[in-house]
Structures are given as structure tokens and as C-alpha cells.
Amino acid sequence: MIGNKILNTFLKQQRISVIRKFSSQINIEKLEEESNLSPSDFISDEAKARDAIIEQKRNKSRLREQGRSILMNKNPYPEPCASHHGTLKYIRRTYGCYGEASGVNPSLCWPVKEELDSSKEYERLKHPYTIPEMIAEAAKLKKEKEERTAMRQEEIVKRMQKLEGWKQDLFNRIAKKEAEARSVKERKERLVEEVKRHFGYSVDPKDERFKEMLEKKEKEQRKALKEERRKQKEAKLMDKVSKKGNHENQDNEKESDDKEESSKNKNIKEE
Question: From the record, what ranges are coiled-coil (predicted)?
Fold first, then answer.
């Protein structure tokens, strides 16, 4: 390329000197302006062929022309070579990748009427509400969420206030269970002592006589506890009945007093 530029400059100077020598009537400045041609105007066909061979030798990738064009960020298919190359989608994509170098008319990238109608229909179905309606719906959902959060917070506060009571109830239940377990253990120990006193001497707990006597004592104890619970239940029931009777008597007395008072008022009115 440098040799071509030197050759072009030399030819240009030779031409200007010849014209100045043989004709003083020619407009030299105009001729100089016309002589500002591109270097390719002075390159012969042989030079072009030689450049093509050199360019081909420079390609060491051994790629196909299409692949090398992609590598050089050029349009790999200036002319359609497949069925989908002529589609509008492919043409737009080519322009998006290579810009003006793709040789695609930019006006083809603008959507046609059918595409605009289809896009509008899609948007209408996907987003049927107007912007004010969407804003109102979003505000409504936000308000509902805030209300649910506030209710949840209030519920948590109420439960936290009851937490101490729940803990105390739990401790009381645990203490009650422990007391019952201790009571059962103490009763068991007392029964064992009673059985030992019954025999009058130390007996092996694994002895059959000891086991029989212990079982008998346990049955008697369970029977006594059952009888005690029955008496307590009867006492509670009698207490409840007596209270109910007292309330009924009070109600009857109040009703009789009301009747007497109403009769007195009636007599007074008649007089």
C-alpha cells in the first residue's frame, strides 16, 4: 500500500510538470484539483489481484468466508443463502448486529401495521387495567397488607402480655406433677413400711408373700382414695345445690315483695 501511494504521488507530479511544459494556457489550479483522485484510480487490475492474493495469504485461520466475516464483525451473508435469510426478523437482527455495514435499509426495522396491532392487542390482554386503576389497586393491596401487619403486631403484643401468665401456669402444672409424683412415691414407701411391720421382720421385696401383701395394701389404698374423691364430689354437689336453693329463695322473696308492692300501689290508685 505504501508503494502504491508513492507511485500515485510520482505520477501526479509527472503529469503536472508535463502540462506546465507544453501548455501555459491550461488552468493549472483546476487541473490540480481534478488530479486529486483516490489511490484506487491508479491501481491496475494486476495490483488489485495481487492485493487479493496477499489478503488471502494473511488469512491463517482457515475459516470459511462467512465465519471469518463474523470474526471480523462483518455481515457474513450479504446475499441470502438460506430460506430464513430473507425474513424480516433475520434482516432486522442483521442490522442490529452490524449496523450500516450490513447494507440493510433501516426503515425495515420499524414495525409494520400488523405488528403494531398485534402488540397493542397483546398489551391490552396482558394489562387490561389503565394506569390509574393499577395505581388504585396497588394502593389497596398495600393498605390491606399494612392492616394485616398491624393486626399481627397487635396479636403479638397481646400474647406477649399473656406470656408471664402462661409461664406461671406451666410452672404450676410442672410443680403439680412433681408433687403428685412425690406423693405416689411416699405412699409407696409407706405401704412397704406397713407390710414390713405386718410381718414383724425384714422381708425381701421379691418374696411372693411380700408382693401379695403389698398388692392388697395398694388395693385398699386405691379404694380409700376413690371413696375420698366420691365424698368430695358429693360435698361439692350439695354445696352447689344449697347455693342454688338460696338463690331461688331469694328470687321468690323478691318476686313476692314485688307483688305486694304492686298490689299496694293498685289499691292506692283505686282509693
Answer: none
Decide: helix, strand or coil at residue 78.
coil
Is residue 69 within 8 Å of 102, Cβ to Cβ? no
Contact criterion met (CB below 8 Å) for 75 and 103 = yes
- Is the CB of residue 98 less than 8 Å from the CB of residue 88? no
- The pLDDT-based confidence of 24 (bands split at 50, 70, 90) is very low
All three cell numbers of 261, joined, read 308492692
* pLDDT tens digits, one per residue of 56-72: 788 777 788 888 888 88
Q: CA distances (Å), 203 to each of 35, 44, 122, 190, in order?
A: 141, 134, 96, 15
Cα 112 to Cα 155: distance, rounded to the nearest angstrom = 59
Task: Quote the cell numbers at residue 264.
Answer: 299496694
R_g (Cα) of the chain, nearest Å: 58
DSSP state of 157: H
Alpha-carbon distance 5 to 13, whole Å? 12
pLDDT higher at 209 or 8: 209
Do residues 91 and 83 touch, judged by C-beta distance below 8 A? no
Show the cell assigned to 55: 489478503
Q: Is the pLDDT of residue 88 over 80?
A: yes
CA-based end-to-end distance of the chain: 145
Note the pLDDT tens digit of each residue in 218-252.
777 778 888 888 888 888 888 888 877 666 666 66
Contact status, residue 116 vs residue 123, Cβ threshold 8 Å: no
Asked if 88 contacts 108 with a C-beta cutoff of 8 angstroms, the reply is yes
What is the Cα–Cα distance from 229 to 106, expressed in whole angstroms? Answer: 100
